[in-house]
Amino acid sequence: MSKQKLLIISIIGLLLCVTEKEVFAQFTITGELRPRTEFRNGFKKLRDKSADPAFFIEQRSRLYINYKKDKIELNIALQDVRMWGSLDQIYKTDPTLQNVYEAWAKYSFNDKFAFKLGRMAMDYNNARFMGNLDWAQQGRSHDAFMFLREDKENNSKLHLAFAYNQQIPFEPGKLSGNEYLGVKNYKTMIFGWWDKRFEKGGMSVLFHNDGRQVQADSSMAYRQTYGLIGDYTLGKIKLDGELYYQGGNNSKNISINALMVMLHGTLKTKLTPITLGFEYVSGTSLADNTDKSFNPLYGTNHKFNGFMDYFYVGNPHGQGGKISGLLELHLKTKFKLGEKSNLLANLHYFASPVKIYKTFDTSGETYGSTLGTELDLVYTLVLTKDVKLNLGYSHMFATETMEAVKGGGDKSALQNWAWAMIAFKPQLFTTAK
Length: 433
Fold this sequence. Notes:
The chain is mostly beta strands. It contains 2 helices and 21 strands. Helix content is 5%, strand content 52%. The model has no long low-confidence stretch (mean pLDDT 91).
């Protein structure tokens, strides 16, 4: 969708509101402009000493339109994602990403039951398995039908979502056949989530089944993920944990038997909260014939395992095309520097839960299990209600084992990443009182 069409849609929506003599509906328009500058010098993978760092500015611009009246809610989010200077100043075609991030409608039968359908972001619990990927400028959304039951009196929620995806066929104008190959997405999806809050904590149960078409024979392979998420506050300490199991078959129709475990403890102090935690993500070694690698699939993975995105953020780590998994220990804290500013500091230790071989001979020598240590720093300043500034710096201290699982790079080279982002998100118009 062109920028001209985005502008026309927003103007028409605004005119419909302001020209209505008597407004019975709630109509809100919110704008967002979020440029981010990045200096990448070892981001996602280890660099060689001879490699030059990357420096660029990427911007996301969004227009959120929300309409509520009686039992109906309509939500549309239009976005433009571009790299500064990626095209000529005078151009007829635009190679940047312009699309509809969200476009869904919701109908409420009463104050407990509703259904929603369309293109929607899905963000649950801490977004470890199902998240909206907000860090990425383009985000993540799903085309789905969802049933919702939310009981405020009992503090419980039940969401059930279903999806069936199809691609545009090669023959223009004729939608026939059911092939869904070459698309990095599920063909079918069933998602269930139940959440219950208690006085000092809560728990969630999650189920996900995704069906993917096997490249070799176009048959379907189904993968199931089961999750249990909980938290409990004990005095000044908050405990939270997650347990996931993954079974079924992957897109190559290989059997899956995978596990992920997370546990955190946060202590509130007068100065700052201190979080100590660990995460175990099972992996597959060269010697394994089955898939033992847990896949966090649709989570906002940038939030976890270090901000430099060495693991589970669109880039593999392992040997022979097999993901080696991860064992992580971390210490996290956040210092309040002023009324409107704070400094986040995270320290991560990474290790491999499976053997990493020095050659592709599984009877040969192996590397040590330690992958490296990462330090993350993020400064946040709230300039106004609608404007927030973030400055970040991360540093990776890697080992030769990291070189092996990332397929190269030089551990002795400087590996760091710095970024700056300012987000403007003002409410442009609303009929709400």
